[in-house]
């Protein structure tokens, strides 16, 4: 099952849309969310769906390991040279919002090494509901929560839930087993987010990432228009 609300998309915005040589750089989309919500699985699913039609790469963030990058490499979602790992050494907020230098270096190295690229996905390390990306790093942000975390998460809000360009409510297949009410989550998310879109996903379902992939394609269309 998936519920889709408010399909309007907001165009990607960046202060610097071009590389030093004047060519348009890749669209950068950040993915944040709590530990275990399914960020890396969502990135992997997006890569599988988009890799045949887009030139894309991924930057992962972990505090002390390369675990998320290694997961993507093991699953062969992209060639190894298209996956970069950043070890933040501190709270994930630091590397995606406060001191973004390591992530900027990673995305620039990817564009130099395997470019030209259409899209770079930047995955944050697992964090709480306050994680947001610097607009100096990404052009749009996806925030991933899951039903097992409780169906009150959309109602509680927080910057990730209320301001992300796309909110993804993941693992809908678990709702009957954990007592989460998807209709309630949809209602609360809409109340918190207004016109900002919400996608309900189950990555266990065939093409379960489709609503997220469609949103990414719309963002890329706005970016290149």
Would you summarize the structure shown here?
With 225 residues, this protein is of the alpha/beta class. It contains nine helices and eight strands. An eight-stranded mixed sheet has the order 1-8-7-6-2-5-3-4, sandwiched between helices.
Structure description:
The protein has 225 residues and is α/β, with parallel strands linked by helices. It contains nine helices and eight strands. The chain has an eight-stranded mixed beta sheet, with helices on both faces. The two termini are 33 Å apart. Mean pLDDT is 88; it is low at 1-15.
List keywords for this structure.
single chain; 225 residues; alpha/beta; eight-stranded mixed sheet; 18% strand; globular; disordered N terminus
**Tally of strands:** 8
Helix/strand-derived category reads alpha/beta
Helix content: 25-40%
- Strand adjacency order, main sheet: 1-8-7-6-2-5-3-4
Globally, the shape reads: globular
**Low-pLDDT sequence parts:** 1-15
CA-based gyration radius: 16 Å
* Average pLDDT reading: 88
Q: Report the β-strand fraction as a percent range.
A: 15-25%
End-to-end gap? 33 Å
Helix-strand sequence: EEHEHEHHEEHHEHHEH
Biggest pleated sheet: 8 strands, mixed
Total helical segments: 9
